From TrEMBL:
GO molecular function: cadherin binding
Source organism, top-level taxon: Eukaryota
The protein's name: EH domain-containing protein
GO cellular component: clathrin coat of coated pit
Domain EH, first and last residues per copy: 9-72
UniProt record, GO biological process: endocytosis; endosomal transport
Record InterPro entries: EF-hand-dom_pair, EH_dom
Natural source organism: Pavo cristatus (Indian peafowl)
């Protein structure tokens, strides 16, 4: 079940990083995650957890982790 979820999240990631650079900037990620319907406050808290080093971008793995957090 977990592996299937990761494959799904990787497919989502490819939507915002079609050339698969391995990094998605904060603005691109924000546009994508706002579609979830969560408030900006909640999304901000998730971002803080997903980007603790404040590099202002998400890798594929962190993007998937972000999705898992959003599901909680």
């Amino acid at each position: 079940k977990f592996s299937a979820a990761i494959l799904l999240y990787e497919a989502y990631y490819k939507q915002i990083d079609p050339t698969y650079t391995g990094r998605v900037g904060a603005s691109e990620a924000a546009l994508f995650f706002k579609k979830s319907g969560l408030s900006d406050i909640i999304l901000g808290k998730i971002w803080d957890l997903a980007d603790p080093e404040v590099v202002c971008c998400l890798s594929t793995h962190i993007f998937c982790y972000n999705h898992l957090l959003r599901k909680q």
